[in-house]
Amino acid sequence: MPSSPTSGVGRVIAGRYLLLHRLGSGGMGHVWLAHDQRLACEVALKEIVFGDPAEPGQEREARVARARAEARHAAGLRGHPHVVTVHDVLEHEGLPWIVMEYVAGAVDLRELLARSGPPAPAECARIGLAVLDALTAGHERGVMHRDVKPANILLAPDRTGAPYGRVLLTDYGISVQPDTGETRYTMASALVGTAGYLAPERATGGPPTPAADLFSLGCTLYHAVEGSGPFARESPLASVTAVVMEDPRPPVRAGALEPVLRGLLTKDPDLRATAREVEAELARIVTPQTETYARTQTDLGSQPPWAASAHPEPEADARGPAATGTRRRPRPHALRAVLAGGLGLVLALGGAWYALADRESGGGGTAVPYGEAVGLVEPLEEDDCVLADWPGGSPFAGTPRLTLDPTCADQAPDGQVVAFVEAASAEEARERGPARCEERTRELRGRLADVRGLAVVPTADGFEAAGGRTACLVLGAHGPVYGPLGDRRRLGTAFADTATMQRRDCLDVRSRREARLVSCDGTYDEQVLGFTRLGRDVTLAEARTESDTACARAVPPRDYGFDPSVHEAGSWTSEGPWKSGTHVVVCTVRRQNGGTMEGAEP
């Protein structure tokens, strides 16, 4: 009978590690959050579990040996920025436990995709670059991962405040060094790896190779951008058969990633794209070439839209805290620039990209800037707030009809024009406008909780009327944004909803229901650190009592340098995210004694 998530809480492992609660479970056992009583810090412990006491001794020995191998292989990659660090492997009651880095606020890619849907191709490319870097580091040491899949990729907050900015490859439990004569710990009853992600040569009994890991990476990136694996079928056996015998399903959302996926998912490993080729292409997607290059940039917004959701009625109701009184080695320059700079969209919370590129021009001879479907008779101007009426009421499905909200407040705007990109011709605007808009708005979208980009491209007939410019908009992903965005907000203005709160905002808290934007150069009550989401079954009333705790767990202030003996996590909720079903909570930091903060704390 499986153990419960609390079974084992309070145990002390090897006289040192106090088990606090279970973080998750996998094929080899459970992963626990534990307190290292010697160093007074938190670590993650992997426990080997044998569900069947009658399991053959040979298989038990193989599983234990695999755990030791995992620790050895991962420890060899210690210090790599995209590999979960392994500190130690120890014996407790005859079984090995692996002591690993605890990655606070981490969520695996599989869970995040199930919760929030596929991100934009550029964000998938950013994740792919990081995983490829980790794989290449292992391959250079002769270590194959053999189980690259979304569940083994962790996304966690980085030091800049991006909630999913840090990308980590984990679970080297079935990795192997084929050229060393090392024993391969393959279970007698199953293939080593995960059905649907195995390379075809591995599924038919071939040896593990770097090329096989790259095929698995291709399956993982396909899953990330399309929402399901390229060979996902009704059973593991059917998935393995599809890997060997069938072509991947044609991607429909991949956009600029489609050529990369095609190269990685080539059946013949000798013809498959190499790590160097894949790295160059992914870096090109994340950081498009500037216009000084003759090469045409890929349109990141050309992929069709995805996951429609109900468009909520405008609601302006900001709520304050619910609880009272608690307030390496060298890599190519392109890759270093992308990863060190923290570029890329914010997965799920930074949202997808969508382009309106001459979808319906309205026929020849029209002078309407963006076509009859969009409906605007005058070109958009910077800072314009817009209302978007989507066909059928499904956001980001089809071409929206746009109207202006001159006040940016009276009608709860859906979004705002935040930038423009110019082009020499309508063709150039169509080809390059969306990708350039993605780049121009990336920073702002990364600071907001639940937004997507919208590139409004002039039609061929309306190019001159539009001034030769593509309008770059930021819209709420699941509802209105309720007001101006970014630096278009005025200091002293009260938030109508949490939708316009962004990372590193400083707040003057007037009451439990009112907060105002103030300068961080002076005194303030709270500072926004990031965001988290609560479960679909959590009501708004429950959220107002649970959100502080959820933020303390998902966005702990200590990870941003705040002294936990002085500061604590706070939170803000509003009605809009609950009506749209996104359940986004804004996470803040504040002083425990209720005092004001000042300047660039910490």
Architecture overview:
With 602 residues, the protein is of the alpha+beta class. The chain has four domains: 12-101, Phosphorylase Kinase, domain 1 (2-Layer Sandwich); 107-179 and 192-286, Transferase(Phosphotransferase) domain 1 (Transferase(Phosphotransferase), domain 1, Orthogonal Bundle), CATH 1.10.510.10; 352-486, no CATH class; 491-598, no CATH class. It is built from twelve helices and 23 strands. It has helices at 57-75, 109-116, 121-140, 200-203, 210-226, 236-245, 258-264, 275-286, 333-340, 426-447, 540-554, 575-580; strands at residues 12-13, 17-25, 29-36, 41-48, 86-92, 95-101, 107-108, 153-156, 166-169, 318-319, 353-357, 385-389, 401-404, 415-422, 451-457, 469-476, 506-511, 514-518, 523-524, 526-533, 567-574, 584-591, 597-598. It has a six-stranded antiparallel β-sheet, with helices on one face. A six-stranded antiparallel β-sheet has the order 10-21-22-20-17-18. Strand 2 (17-25) and strand 3 form a beta hairpin. Helix 3 packs antiparallel against helix 5. It starts with 11 loop residues before the first strand and ends with a strand. The model is unreliable at 1-6, 173-190, 289-351 and 358-366 (pLDDT under 50).
